[in-house]
Amino acid sequence: MADTAAFDKWFQKGRYYNFYGVDGNRFKIGSEVFEAIEDECDGYRSYLGSIEVKDKSEIFFKTAIARVTVTEEDYDGFRGYCFTDATGHCWLKIGTNEMYDYYPCFVFHYEPKQPKPEPVKAEIAKPEPSKREQAIVEIHNYLKAARDGYDDDYRAVAETLVKKYMS
């Protein structure tokens, strides 16, 4: 049986706590940092050995990533704790899983919630440029071409542009 007295003494059933994430087998809930210690038994089997209070650490998120309640679980061979938010998502599961009553194994399963995808922003259609704007662009392009020596008939081009855009 795991030594979880320090943890059991700390948490209250039904109460929600700020959860700040996981680092290795350590986790921060409320203002406390805990570590789940694995009892390796004989090398083939392992158990949750204990949950110990640890020194504060700066490795965790500065703001809570979830509000969770801690429940003791005992079902389908799993015996331990589940840190669940109000939507039913289990962020962290700690305990021992009994496989066929012969091979127990230590469980420390952290499953952060996937972020919600950002809504796709509709691309705003650009309005058609006005005749004036079209003329400016075309005149600009023409002047660049004339400067570079591609067209010597400036007057004919200018008259064509004026007729095209000013009519």
List keywords for this structure.
167 residues, 2 domains, 22% helix, alpha+beta
Q: How much strand?
A: 35-45%
H/E element string? HEEEEEEEEHH
Q: Which regions contain 5 or more consecutive residues with pLDDT less than 50?
A: none
Give the biggest beta sheet. Answer: 8 strands, antiparallel
* Helical residues, percent: 10-25%
Our measurement of the CA-to-CA distance between the termini, rounded to an integer number of angstroms, reads: 92 Å
How large, in whole angstroms, is the Cα Rg? Answer: 34 Å
Number of strands: 8
Domains, number? 2
Give the integer mean of the pLDDT values: 80
Number of helices: 3
The coarse silhouette is: rod-shaped
Summing up helix and strand content along with how strands pair, one would put the structural category as: alpha+beta
Physical arrangement of strands within the biggest beta sheet: 4-3-2-1-5-6-7-8
Explain this structure:
With 167 residues, the protein is an alpha+beta fold. The chain has two domains: 5-110, no CATH class; 131-166, no CATH class. The protein has three helices and eight strands, in the order αββββββββαα. The protein has helices spanning 5-10, 131-147, 154-166; strands at residues 16-23, 26-29, 32-39, 47-54, 66-75, 78-84, 90-99, 103-110. An eight-stranded antiparallel sheet has the order 4-3-2-1-5-6-7-8. β1 (16-23) and β2 (26-29) form a beta hairpin. α2 (131-147) packs antiparallel against α3 (154-166). The model has no long low-confidence stretch (mean pLDDT 80).
Summarize the structure in short:
The protein is α+β, with helices and mostly antiparallel strands. Helix content is about 20%, strand content about 40%. It has helices spanning about 5-10, 130-145, 155-165; strands at about 15-25, 25-30, 30-40, 45-55, 65-75, 80-85, 90-100, 105-110.
